[in-house]
Amino acid sequence: MGKRVFVSADWKEGSDFRSCDKIVVDKIRQWANDRRLSVELDCTDDVHDSVVYDPDCRRCDIKGECGRHIDRSSIVIFVVGDNTADKSSGWCNSESCSPAYSGQVKENCKYKNKNSPSDDVTDGRKMSYLQYEITKAAIAGKTIILVFNSMQNEGSWIPTWYDTLRRNYKFTEQCRVPFWKNRERTQDCYQDIKDYLL
């Protein structure tokens, strides 16, 4: 039986289809169907979709649910794309925030005077979804695998907050690998990292 793996990525469709990290997430999903690997997989977008049906679902609720899935995982795959360092979706000022789907009218923070599900991480409310997920994984001592949405390792794409995490917490970064093996995006890094997932 494979390990339980959480995939942290920005899954929303971007204006540049070739740059969209959703392509990587969808490809990783196919690994779960490989009988030799039989990995149990949780992807950020699946977790979001499991809680946003609640009309009062807030960003902290989504983070809290992602945190519970990370707690149950042994490995977190962090998909790093060319826009990852600039992502801020999920940030809340603890005063007012929009419900889970952005673009809606902001309301008073329902956790303004009480703990939120994201408070298990210091400053969790002020973090983006991605930063919260990886910080949660680091604090919990989870093994992290970095995959770049590219054909080569792109160190400049790594957010500065990730480097700070590496200095402050003792977590294992198993490896850094480019996800794609060819320009056509038909071959991926599955063979490179599958042993870590067994």
Q: What is the β-strand count?
A: 7
The shape, in one word, is globular
Oligomer: single chain
User: In this structure, how is the largest beta sheet organized?
Assistant: 5 strands, parallel
- CATH topology group: Rossmann fold
In DSSP terms (H or I, runs of 4 or more residues), the helix count works out at 6
The end-to-end distance, rounded to whole angstroms, is 7 Å
Low-confidence stretches: none
The CATH class name reads Alpha Beta
Share in helix = 25-40%
Integer count of domains: 1
Strand content: 15-25%
Elements, N to C (H/E): EHEHHEEEHEHEH
The CATH architecture can be given as 3-Layer(aba) Sandwich
Rg, Cα atoms, Å = 17 Å
Structural class: alpha/beta
Q: Average pLDDT, to the nearest integer?
A: 86
Q: How do the strands of the widest beta sheet line up side by side? A: 2-1-3-6-7
Please give the structural blueprint:
Blueprint: E1 4-8, H1 22-31, E2 40-43, H2 44-51, H3 59-72, E3 75-80, E4 96-97, E5 107-108, H4 129-139, E6 143-148, H5 160-168, E7 173-178, H6 190-197
Parallel strand pairs: 1-2, 1-3, 3-6, 6-7
Antiparallel strand pairs: 4-5
Helix pairs in contact: 2-3, 3-4, 4-5
Summarize the structure.
The protein has 198 residues and is an alpha/beta fold.
Task: Please describe the structure with a list of short key phrases separated by commas or semicolons.
16% strand, two-stranded antiparallel sheet, alpha/beta, globular, single chain, five-stranded parallel sheet, 198 residues, Rossmann fold, 7 strands, 6 helices
